[in-house]
Amino acid sequence: MGQPRGASGARTPARVIAIASLTPLEELDADPFLVDSRTQHAMCARWADEHGYVVARELLVGGLRFDHRALWDGVRPGVDLFVVPSLRVLRRALSSVEEFTAECARRGVRVVTVGRAEPSYDAQMKARVHRRLSMPTAGYDGR
Q1: Those residues with Cβ within 8 angstroms of residue 71's Cβ, 6 or more apart along the chain or in another chain
Q2: How far apart are CA 70 and CA 119, in angstroms?
Q3: Which of 25, 86, 139, 141 has the greatest number of beta carbons closer than 10 A?
């Protein structure tokens, strides 16, 4: 997979930083995919696995600034990459997609959109997302 080589000549494993949107539960009926961060992260993890990468971090953010420390902590230029399910998710997760992609280009960090179709949510799927997000302190994890 053409991964960069370190100083010793060994391949440096690229790490994926998966970005999901932090969207209020109140928007579940109108836009369940944006609320369902677990499915967003799963899409990124599937893409990473298919391309020989490892997910190092999962970010769950909403309207975050492009230069926020949480985005860039430990990111290795030319090695690591950001993966997001879609441009729509990225628009919700960050305050400015344009500034973020420009900063990525400046730092030598790739941004990849998975680009797969979003799942269609029926009432049962929405109910599972609702239970998982509304009862996290009760130990319910949605399984």
Answers
A1: 17, 59, 61, 64, 82, 100
A2: 28
A3: 86
Q: Show Cβ contacts of residue 22 under 8 Å, excluding neighbours closer than 6 positions.
A: 37, 60, 61, 62, 93
Residue 70, helix vs strand vs coil: helix
pTM: 0.86
The sign one gets for the Cα dihedral 41, 46, 51, 55 is positive
Domain 15-118 has CATH 3.40.50.1390: yes
Dihedral of the alpha carbons of 58, 60, 66, 71, in degrees to the nearest 10:
-30
Domain ranges of the chain: 15-118
Q: Please write the tens of the pLDDT for every residue from 106-130.
A: 999 999 999 899 999 999 999 999 9
